[in-house]
Amino acid sequence: MLEKIKSLSEKYFPETQAYRHHIHSNPELSFQEFETSAYIQAQLKAMNIPFEVKAETGIVAHVLGKNPSKKVVALRADIDALPIQETNEVSYKSKNAGIMHACGHDVHTSSLLTALKILSDTKEEWEGSVKAIFQPAEEKLPGGASIMIKEGALENPKAESIIGQHVMPLIETGKVGFRSGKYMASTDELYIKVIGKGGHGAMPQFNIDPVLIASHMIVALQQVVSRNADPKTPSVLSFGKVIANGATNVIPNEVYIEGTFRTLDEAWRAKAHEHIRTIATGLVESMGGKLELEIRKGYPFLINDEHVTAKAKAAAENYLGKENVLDLDIWMAAEDFAYYSQIMPASFYRLGTGNKAKGITASVHTPNFNIDEESLKIAPGLMAWIAIKELEN
Fold first, then answer.
1. pTM for the whole thing?
2. How crowded is the C-beta side of 279, counted as CA atoms within 13 Å?
3. Which of 12, 64, 67, 344 is such that its CA lies 20 to 30 A from the CA of 262?
4. Which residues are marked as active site?
């Protein structure tokens, strides 16, 4: 059956590519994926694959093999795009100004559509059921995964495990990567306002300088990680936005700051929030200022189940050859697939989409991100094969 699935994945490459080009050309932001959802539903109807709609734009589709109640595995793809203006000059360039599939969700969705087609074609040759989750809003809190879970996407029938695929331009096309255990970080957003008293820059004695206070606060907060975190627990506290809207000779009334905190330990995550509040509040007030601080809790950390990941990795080695299956390191980016991994056995693996020889090296979340589409010949069949092997006892 392996060779048959490989053959079907190659055979359906034109369809997979067409799915990807349509979705890439018509990107939609998180929680606004109405046309994308309608397109996916139309393809499922054409394949005679039953489905239901969840979370307004999310879709749950079902392919039943022999003895369908024996075991149920879920496959997940995300469908939303990012607020980025595409700079690629390709025939399938984004038609929607300021919106782009810069994180490969078009690849994930098109791959899963074709994987379902392959599974449907071979349903008399495997046992169990495959539940396909096309999920909205991976890129925006609170994350579409959390909503899909609340609306019962994993129930009726209840999935016993879930598998997700994500593009990785750092890995060459033809290869994939796996990691067992903790893999991706939790993510929290920090919104801070340091309030002082503005005035003329030549007369600082009459002012409470929020720029100086904010500067000290940013430096002081680095000790949250360097002096409070267990060195064996990966943690990141970074600030990426600082607005002090004064002038060369004008001290502003306030400074606005945004940042992110990430880690792979939920207990330490809670303690870190306390440290951030205590340090920031104490320092700002000691220098005469006032503080407004919001810590917006985001996705949990992502953990790959040992047994599900071992089976998926073995299936990939079987499909691609052991030399093309890599071991991954911890990745401090975040993914709302983590919500699934916190409540059920899960495995989230990486599909190689880079090609240095072709100049395809741009990172995700950049305006010139693209993939080597040779990866689309592999991805659907590999997803289908991993699902079939996971269904085996």
1. 0.94
2. 19
3. 344
4. 80, 138
